Amino acid sequence: MATKVTSAVMRQGLRVLGVAIRTEKAVFTLAVLSSAVYGGMTVASAWALGWATQNVVLPSFAEDRVADGALWTGTLLIIGTALLKAIGVAGRRILAGLLQYRMQARSRRDVTKQYLRLPLSWHHRHPTGQLLSNASADAEAAWAPLAPLPMAVGVIVMLITAAVAMILTDTVLAVVGFLIFPAIAVLNLVYQRKLSPLATRAQQLRAEVSEIAHESFDGALVVKTLGREDLETQRFLRRAHELRDANIAVGRVRGLFDPMLEALPTLGVLAVLAVGALRLSTSSIDAGDLVQVAYLFTLLSFPIRALGWVLAELPRSVVGWQRVQAVLDATGSMEYGSQDLASPTPAALEVRGVSYAYGQAEVLHDVTFDVPAGRTVALVGPTGSGKSTLVQLLVRLVDPTSGQVLLDGLDLREVAYGGIAESVALVPQQTFLFDDTVRGNVTLGGDVPDEDVWAALRLAQADGFVGRLPAGLDTRVGERGASLSGGQRQRVALARAVVRRPRLLILDDATSSVDPQVEAKILYGLRDAAEASTVVVVAYRMATIALADEVVYLDHGRVVDRGRHEELVTRCTGYRNLVTAYEREEAERAAIEAEPVTGPARLEDEEDQEEVSA
Amino acid sequence: MTAQSIQRNAERSALGTIRHGLSLTPEFRKGLAGTLILAVVATIGKIIVPIAVQQTIDTGLKTGRPDLEYITTAVLICAAAVVVTALAGYLMNVRLYKATESSLATLRVRGFRHVHDLSVLTQNSERRGALVSRVTNDIDQISTFMQWGGLMIIVSLGQLFVATVLMFVYSWQLTLLVWACFIPLMIALPRFQRLLSRAYTLVRERTGDMLAAVSESVVGAAVIRAYASERRTGERIDTSVNANRSAQIRAQTIVGFVFPLTEIVAALAIAGIVLLGVRLGLSGDISQGQLVAFLFLVTLFVSPLQTATEVLNEAQNAVAGWRRILGVLDTPPDVADPGERGVELPRGPISVAFEDVHFAYPGGEPVLREITLEIPPRTRVAVVGETGSGKTTFAKLLTRLMDPVGGRVTVDGHDLREVRFSCLRERIVMVPQDGFLFDGTLADNIRYGKPSATDAEIELAMTELGLADWVEGLPAGLDTAVGQRGESLSAGERQLVALARAYLADPDLLLLDEATSAVDPATEVRLARALEGVTRGRTAVSIAHRLSTAEKADEVLVFDAGRLVQRGAHADLVKEPGVYADLHSSWVSAAHS
């Protein structure tokens, strides 16, 4: 793990900083200039104080007289350097913020642009959580060292100025400084090296504690119904205690180094006083010089730590940047053709020898079928038979590993960008709504008159509840539609599809969360309205299948049979078993009830026996 | 609503909140006095430099020739003092970290446990993320404050205090001058802090918006592509990312302007000291060493005031954090475990009775009225009704996820409220519609029903439920990882696991709340048949979403608009005109149309 400041990490970290510097040249230059002003003025303010001591304070005590000219000069020097320093500080902080947040925002925009550009198959290979953290936490971490960077550059300016000032004042005193300041810098470096892995571990544990709490509270109903509160508390407690111990370990290191870093400059000042007194006795320096150097030590002790802050952030930055870069470097995109699909008539669909694999695992094998224009076909198959994958191929969310999907005889890969979406509408199994208004979710920004939106909502049986929403079409649905129920979300998603009057409508079990009665109304409405559409519907409910002109029965990624429902029921065993499961069950029950003696009565006997033996 | 939602605690003052919070964490108060003494000793270290400078100039350089012996002695004594104060600082830090982390870990775990003890209604009154926050971020905020902000308050006040005392010893006139310079800044600080706090609040809100927008590009990847709305989504994301950036820069700009103000004020104070000091020196009110020491003492005012806005901000956040965690702990679990005083039911088939039960959500219309019924042991009951008829409420009352507003629910003759949770949760298990799974393997999740179960027991349970084939078809069988919240499985498969989990728990009353609604028909029928076998000898209640469940039941309970309108065997009910006959005909037409 890259938590230690190794030389490799240093090199990479500096390269990351280089990227930022090149991208935001102007801001970085101004920030560094501000910081240099701050650094220079910090040293200058100590010099001003020394000057005032030597030329104003000491003479006035020695001569019992205040020299007005020197007094005002000293005052102006003190206030002037402070003002310049303040401007430097303000500029440095504001510009450092600008630098950091601009880079952060840039990474976030670039990363999400990639998310939108890369094909869905790429998304399939990357867990949601990871992608979200690439765009948030990693983009943040990558540019975190930019905040203290200008300060660190300013500190270097400050140290060089201070070194020159000390050498000019007195070489012997300067030696004290040359011993103390590197010591502070090294101590701080050791501090950051010791702290960094511990802090990373604490951060990691904090995330884990949060994850447990999230999962546990999400599953609160399961925990409660099974009475597993103690088990969950134990699980949480273990991690919470690990976090406690990790934080205490951080505290030990902080507790040790912070006071040392405070004490070291103080000891430096004391050394300056002792050595300075010696130099005074040989008249090598004056008292003003002594005050100036001592003051310099007081002022420099804190900023010098900024060098350590940049270094401390580097390992995290490198990891964050690499993760962001991995997304930006991801290749592969969907190539589009130039053909136009637009036509006022329903589309004809043809699936020709299509196979598809997730990685090595092929889930569709040589699937072939066609849907003539204007017809409705039901795709039926047990869970895991490949229906949802097939549906993704039909709207070209993914391309087949082999074979072709053709719309009006045109391979989907030859269609121009946006062309498929114009003609084909998919309502997926997993409803997704944008954090937008109902209208925005139906129109997706398209220019659609309200009557059409309402008509689509009516068809989806959603006009009733949308009409009752506080702001009607302008009601915001919340993140992923959180303010609506599952069934309501599905109906809005359905309206989104039908509002564009698609030439091919694909429903992937799109009414599963809707009440059966409401579902029936939707399906009848669709059948009446869908005259202008070809429809492919994934289903295993009889009510849905009944709408279809034809059924394609899929099992284990293959087309097992196709034909009218009545035909398939008689000749295809798998299909019959699936769709008539309920009916057969009823029939068997009826048969058992016809012979009451061998039925329930026998069961009761068994129960009695069980009770006796128990 | 107030009865069920989590306490706000807004009426309690900031100090009252902190006092109450500390009273819940005895680990923190223990040894606090010692830590404070160490903090005072550590603070004294700050005035060593001014004293050393003053002594050197006034005594060591008095004669014009440095008194080397005196200066060496003074420097050595001061150095020893520095070491002692640093040591005190170390000890204080370690004690502080230990005390705060131990006490906050306790508070965290107590909060976590209490969230689970709250009733379902109370839990649902808040977004899950907000509940999580109360035992994570809020506690972290308190921790940051105690270890940094709170410490800074003590150190800063101590620093200002010792500096002022020493100043006063040297010159009361200059002391007044210094304070006169800094007081306007001190008065303005809370104003700056409010400004900053608003700016940070905006940053947090914008960050939330940004994260939500960014997540759409990932979670909605399929829909965005299917509807070719990449550009529109991209624009929305860019807008929110840029809005977040602007808020961040604005907050940073405020900090950038406020932070150096202290430097300017300090420079004014120093200039003032020089101007007034030399005149005081003329009248012999102050020595030159004392005057120079003042220049150093002023620097002790800088860091407390520079960090003050941030410290105040932290303090505000910590108090808010305390309010939120105390809000959880102060909310009584309204469906409480009778614990030791409760009744322990013997194992065996369970009978249930509802006696004139009423239920209404807080502030809402009644959702169940005058429910009186009994379910004899070993009966299989199906509950039917339209959406909103009160079926699920009935299930929640039967499992004591909620308590009735009127009347009582009894099991084996005991009021549910008197039955120990440990016993109740073991005897009565509900399988909710949404099959929530924990991140882990299939086996881990099934074992959640009975932590002591062996692999063989789990396999046997799967076989008994007729699910062995399904498990075998999975890539790694029982060791298949289910993903976060079970997302690697389909909704139907999650329900299968949830059912197996409840079955392994071996309850005497099994309640299924549309527990197989997402399973494909063939599997569902197989499962129903298996369940028929395994629930034999138990009491079973199924909230039915299809006909055959009702047909198979010993008794059907028909709910309509919160009332029990019909009950009896399917064969009888279907013959009499009423709600059940209507439901039945709509089911039949849906299945055969």
Automatic annotation (TrEMBL), chain B:
- Indicate where this protein is primarily found: membrane
Entries under SMART domains matching the protein = AAA (SM00382)
Looking at the record, the residues that make up the ABC transmembrane type-1 domain are: 33-317
Membrane-spanning segments:
32-53, 73-92, 148-170, 176-192, 254-280
Q: Which UniProt keywords apply?
A: ATP-binding, Cell inner membrane, Cell membrane, Membrane, Nucleotide-binding, Transmembrane, Transmembrane helix, Transport
**What GO CC terms are in its UniProt record?**
plasma membrane
* Name of the protein described by the UniProt record: ABC transporter ATP-binding protein
Q: Which organism is it from?
A: Nonomuraea terrae
